[in-house]
Amino acid sequence: MSAAVPPFVPEAARPLRAPVRAGAKRISFVKRSVLPGFGLSLGFTLFYLAFIVLIPLAAMGVKAAGLTWPEFIAATLSPRAIAAYKLSFGAALLAAAINAVFGLITAWVLVRYDFPFKRVIDAMVDLPFALPTAVAGIALAAIYAPNGWIGELAAPFKIAFTPWGVVIALTFIGLPFVVRTVQPVLQDLSREVEEAAASLGATRWQTFRRVIFPAIAPSLMTGYALSFARGLGEYGSVIFIAGNLPMISEIAPLLIIGKLEQYDYGGAAAIGVVMLAAAFIILLAINLLQRWARVRGGAA
Q1: How far apart are CA 185 and CA 189, in angstroms?
Q2: What's the pLDDT tens digit per position in 121-136?
Q3: What is the percent of the chain where pLDDT is above 70?
Q4: How large a percentage of the chain has pLDDT more than 90?
Q5: Which of 165, 199, 229, 262 has a CB 3.0–4.6 Å from the CB of 241, allowing a cystine?
Q6: Where in the chain are the domains?
Q7: Within a 13 Å sphere around the CA of 148, how many CA atoms are in the beta-carbon half?
Q8: Would you give the DSSP letter of residue 211?
Q9: What's CA 68's distance to the chain center, in Å?
Q10: pLDDT at 20 exceeding the cut of 70
């Protein structure tokens, strides 16, 4: 049998090939990533975190370590310090809880409903981010003072210059953290799931408890943790409305500032170490609870 004859291809239709010289190396084009590699990125991340976060915290620990044990106990467990701890942590936890409830409602309204001036209200949520804390404190003190707009109506409750004024200030600065954390999750949550639950006979409360809340619980806990952390270290907006009375309305950051003004750097560092350790434990517990809610929601 004769060999198959290859089809005739015109010369003009043949692909052009550049002549390869003898000894020439073939050039291979490798697609490279625009971002640096893992080693360089990890090294830069560790250096940045160490320079910005770890070194200042370590310096505070070293300064506190310069105290003797009796001096450390006297600085951190004095009645005035314990009262400041209770007010700072208690007000921050209460304000974060209030923001978790009303921040969720605010995010729900902004996502699920259309109404006039919606964009204006949505932009107003971010005002505590941009507003200087001192300006916020002065405005809150003017409104909630006994002769202010709200202070006159709530005169028997004495909001300003009391621990309740601290809660008001921390609630004001912590609200955007909950709203901006929950809002994207609600936007991505399909309404078809709610309609399916309603078609199966679920009430609105059952739909929220079994369908919506498990989906937004991790982000809600994240917003709660951010609001708590923000409120714990707040100073500027609190001192104008708190009253700053020792044992009554004095927060821990103000106590630290007072020790710094008295050149008691060791005592200020000791109180800072106690607040850092307590805040770390509380944030760790919140993160573990958030992880548990995420795992439970995924299993469901």
Answers
A1: 6
A2: 999 999 988 888 889 9
A3: 86
A4: 35
A5: 165
A6: 57-299
A7: 17
A8: I
A9: 36
A10: no
Residue 260, number of CB atoms within 10 A of its CB:
13
Q: Residue for token digits 């609200």?
A: 175
Residue 103 pLDDT: 94
The residues, ordered by sequence, that sit 6+ positions from 15 with a Cβ below 8 Å of its Cβ are none
* Segment 240-250 mean pLDDT: 89
The 10s digit of each residue's pLDDT in 76-119 is: 999 999 999 999 999 999 999 999 999 999 999 999 888 899 99
Architecture per CATH, domain 57-299, reads as Orthogonal Bundle (1.10)
CA angle 134, 117, 227 (to 5 degrees): 40
Distance CA 29, CA 75 (A): 66
What is the number of residues in the chain?
A: 300
The span from the CA of 289 to the CA of 287, in Å, is 5
Here the tokens at position 197 are 């639950």
